[in-house]
C-alpha cells in the first residue's frame, strides 16, 4: 500500500515537472519571455537538457515502481519534492505579486484621502 502511494505520488510530481518544463520550453520557443539577455537558444538548450534528465528520471521511476523498491521510491520522492518546491514557491510569489498590482484602491471621500468619512442617516 505504501509502495503504491509512493509510486502515484512520484508520478504526480514527475508529471508536474514535465508540464512546467514543457511550458517553459514553449514560452521560450514562441518568444514570450521578457528578459532574454543571452538569446532564446541558450534557454531552449538548457530546458531541452532538463527534459532529457526528466525522461531519464521517468525511466528510473518506472523501473523502481516495477521493482517495488521502497527505498528507491522514497529517494525519488525526496528528489522530486526538492526539485518542485522552488517552482511552487515561485508560482505563489507570482500570484501574490499579480494580486497586489491589481487590487483596487479604497474609495476616498471628495474631501481627500485623510479625511474621516461622515455618517449621514
Q: Your description of this structure?
A:
The protein contains three helices and no strands. It is an all-alpha fold. It has a domain at 2-32 and 40-85. α1 runs antiparallel to α2, α1 packs across α3 and α2 (40-67) runs antiparallel to α3. It is flat.
> How many DSSP-defined strands?
0
Label the overall shape. flat
Secondary structure category: mainly alpha
> Which stretches are low in confidence, meaning pLDDT under 50 for 5 or more residues running?
none
Question: Into which percent range does the helicity of residues fall?
Answer: over 70%
The termini sit apart by 66 Å
Percent of residues in β-strands: under 5%
| Rg for CA atoms | 23 Å
Largest sheet: none
Secondary structure tally, helices: 3
Q: Helix-strand pattern, N to C? A: HHH
Residue-averaged pLDDT: 81
Secondary-structure map:
Layout: H1 2-30, H2 40-67, H3 70-101
Helix pairs in contact: 1-2, 1-3, 2-3
Short description:
The chain is an all-alpha fold and 121 residues long.
Keywords:
74% helix, 121 residues, 3 helices, mainly alpha
